[in-house]
Amino acid sequence: MADNLASFDFGALVAAIRQVDERLAAQASRAVNISLTMRNWLIGAYIAEYELCGADRATYGDSLLTELAKRLTDLRISNSNRRQLYRYLRFYRLYPKIVGILSPQLKELLPAGSLAVEKVGTVSPQLQIPPDKLIHRLSYSHLEFIVDLDDELKRAFYEIECIRGNWSVRELKRQIGSLYYERSGLSTDKEKLAEMVRARADQDEPKLSIRDPYIFEFLGIKPHEVVRESDLEDALLDKLHDFLLELGHGFCFEARQKRILIGDTHGFVDLVFYHRILKCHVLVELKVESFTHENLGQLNTYVNWYRKNMMADGDNPAVGILLCTQKDHALVEYALAGMDNKLFVSKYQLELPKKEEIQRFLEEKMWEVSDGE
């Protein structure tokens, strides 16, 4: 640095700070991702050990994962539903070699007499990614999609291509969905196909991977602290939350940025209320854009998920309120989610805020949070 002081101008200062920020942010992100991957592998190890040696394992039998998921959820241990526990177990069984790269501290966490052994497979050793490279280059979110694949060669294919192309999780999901493995098998020029895929691929940004839903739940960060489409939307949601509670129509606040898992897809509901008069959940989605059918479809999906998974005895089906805004326009759509009880619909229209009321609120608050611009 001393030899370059003459050229160390303001531009160089900005560049140096940016380099430090990017490098250290990427390093921190990798460390968190590795910890999460190891955590899930170790959970799988304990489940496998219990299935083989648990003193009371016969008591639970096929219901083991269901009962375990209930107990862990009660303890507020993140990502511990039945499906996730099954994946952790499968992850452990498919990647036993990870035991060889555990630090001494992590080895102490292994269940006594752990049976992690060399997995005998049919894939050529040349196609097998060393476990240390695997966990350093792929996040657990990447590995989760790969673990779901049944074919060993297909798993190896996506491991290699994902690392070669530095794919984001979204890109990996897209390539699996587009049958890249199968298309490659049928292609007469596999390298040309691979080059085309790499040229168009969405690459991973380590600095941003800390926003992965698994990561922030693992760290105990509340979703609304990291999941937001814009500062404007976040400010509007703050005000909308208070606005609905102040209406006095029976809204009881439950959650903000409520994370739900539908199949392999994570969704976030902006605001969730329970309405004590209507006896149903009210889901509110805010989009700082003009109305689209995709917006309504997303909300309707959330409403249907709540109807199937969250309704208690005596509840009515959830309803959704979709708020779409642009600078001088507000459009409100209510998603009734197939309700055909006319008496209930009439009560619903009476108890929920009127379209004009919300439109006026949105226009006023848009002006406030935009500083009158």
Q: Tell me, what's the shape?
A: globular
Main sheet strand line-up = 1-2-3-4-5
N-to-C series of helices and strands: HHHHHHHHHHHHHEEEHEEHH
- Beta percentage is 5-15%
How many separate helices? 16
Q: Describe the sheet with the most strands.
A: 5 strands, mixed
Which parts are unreliable, with pLDDT below 50 for 5 consecutive residues or more? none
Count of all domains: 2
Question: In which range does the helix fraction lie?
Answer: 40-55%
Structural class: alpha+beta
Using only C-alpha atoms, the radius of gyration works out to: 25 Å
Indicate the mean pLDDT: 78
Distance between the termini: 45 Å
Number of strands: 5
SSE blueprint:
Layout (H helix, E strand, L loop, with lengths): L9 H44 L3 H4 L3 H11 L7 H13 L9 H4 L23 H7 L2 H8 L4 H14 L3 H9 L2 H7 L3 H11 L12 H6 L12 H16 L4 E12 L2 E11 L4 E8 L5 H17 L9 E8 L2 E7 L6 H10 L3 H15 L4
Parallel strand pairs: 3-4
Antiparallel strand pairs: 1-2, 2-3, 4-5
Helix pairs in contact: 1-4, 3-4, 7-8, 13-16
Q: Could you list some keywords that capture this structure?
A:
373 residues, alpha+beta, Trna Endonuclease, Chain: A, domain 1, five-stranded mixed sheet, 16 helices, 5 strands, 53% helix
Short description:
With 373 residues, the chain is an alpha+beta fold.
Word description of this protein:
The protein is of the alpha+beta class and 373 residues long. It folds into 2 domains: 15-112 and 125-211, no CATH class; 224-369, Trna Endonuclease, Chain: A, domain 1 (3-Layer(aba) Sandwich), CATH 3.40.1350. It is built from 16 helices and 5 strands. It has helices at 10-53, 57-60, 64-74, 82-94, 104-107, 131-137, 140-147, 152-165, 169-177, 180-186, 190-200, 213-218, 231-246, 293-309, 342-351, 355-369; strands spanning 251-262, 265-275, 280-287, 319-326, 329-335. The chain has a 5-stranded mixed sheet, with helices on both faces. Helix 1 packs across helix 4 (82-94), helix 3 (64-74) crosses helix 4 (82-94) and helix 7 (140-147) runs antiparallel to helix 8. The protein is globular, with a radius of gyration of 25 Å. The model has no long low-confidence stretch (mean pLDDT 78).
